[in-house]
Amino acid sequence: MFVGSNGHRYQYLLKGLEDLHLDERIMQLLSIINVMFTKINRNEPWSYEARNYTVIPLASRSGLIQWVEGATPLFTLYKRWQQRQATAQTWKAQVCLEFIFKTKFWDILF
């Protein structure tokens, strides 16, 4: 945790074994896109804005990434989707079994 010159506290994640220079460039690109969106959407009731965060490469294979409060990691979204898929498969299997036993499907086969 770092305390800025404005007195606010900033949390960072220390990430190793990965080059963060590309991440830093992408954040700079998102900042430029936000400026362009601001100019384009000046008279519109809606606006688009890409959420960016600070990326500070410290070496070729490590760096700091600003901790973003309230963000949902992509892995979490993927795991939720995976759990929904598993639940749906279980539900389908239960419906099939109920159908088999309620309609006496076994009597038809034998």
Features:
three-stranded antiparallel β-sheet, about 110 residues, about 50% helix, elongated, 2 domains, Phosphatidylinositol 3-kinase Catalytic Subunit, Chain A, domain 4, two-stranded antiparallel sheet, alpha+beta
Q: Write down the CATH topology of the largest domain.
A: Phosphatidylinositol 3-kinase Catalytic Subunit, Chain A, domain 4
> Strand-residue fraction?
15-25%
Radius of gyration of CA atoms, rounded to a whole number: 25 Å
The gross shape turns out to be elongated
The helix content is 40-55%
Low-confidence stretches: none
- Count the strands? 5
Identify the CATH homologous superfamily of the largest domain.
Answer: Phosphatidylinositol 3-kinase Catalytic Subunit, Chain A, domain 4
For the residues shown, what is the average pLDDT? 86
Strand order of the largest sheet: 3-5-4
Largest sheet: 3 strands, antiparallel
Query: Total number of helical segments?
Result: 3
- Give the domain tally: 2
CATH class of the largest domain reads Alpha Beta
Second rung of CATH, namely the architecture of the largest domain? 2-Layer Sandwich
Give me the strand/helix succession. Answer: EEEHEEHH
